[in-house]
Amino acid sequence: MRIAERPLLARAFALLPAGLLAGAFGYGAVNVVYAFRRVPLDVRFTFHTALMSVNGVVMQSLMGLTILSTLVLAIRSTGRLRVLAATASALAVAAFLITRLGNVPINQKIKVWAISGPPADYADILGRWEAFHFARTACALVAFLLVVATTLLPAKEARP
């Protein structure tokens, strides 16, 4: 395969985790967040804690695979496709950082609230969790769309 040709295997490897990550975060943003708002707080906190304990490994793995696969795609690509893939990788890193620095600390608080009850400002804290979630969802969705674009752009776009 010539260097200027689009890297088929790298594109396929990047599409799957990026799509799964965007889909999982999107499902959470569209369904889970709104379901959380409709149930009593004790149910929300208990379910949130259980969901996050399972999601921790799955979502971090998907974020890691998305970062790695889009980075490989950027290295294997040229021209505009390299820029798109590198941007997708940066957005996946942003989703990871938002999760680790924003959502995870709040998840730890919610775990305590499930046992001892929420503080007076719990609504503001839950609002921040949702804002972080929508931000990381947007990052994952745009990253996925950029990977899709690297697949759909004509081969001549790959040349500088």
What does this structure look like?
The protein is mainly α and 160 residues long. The protein contains four helices and no strands. It has helices at residues 8-38, 41-76, 79-116, 122-152. Helix 3 (79-116) runs antiparallel to helix 4. The longest helix is centred in the middle third of the chain and has 38 residues, at 79-116. The mean pLDDT is 91.
Main attributes of the structure:
single chain, 160 residues, 4 helices, 85% helix, elongated
Low-confidence stretches: none
Oligomer: single chain
Measured on Cα atoms, how large is the radius of gyration?
Answer: 18 Å
Helix/strand structural class: mainly alpha
Helical amount: over 70%
- For the termini, the CA-CA separation is 17 Å
Beta-strand content: under 5%
The helix/strand order is: HHHH
Mean pLDDT across the residues is 91
Total count of strands: 0
Largest sheet: none
* Overall shape: elongated
**In DSSP terms, counting alpha (H) and pi (I) runs of 4 or more, how many helices?**
4
Q: How is the topology of this model organized?
A:
Layout: H1 8-38, H2 41-76, H3 79-116, H4 122-152
Short description:
85% of the residues lie in helices and 0% in strands. By secondary structure, the protein is an all-alpha fold.
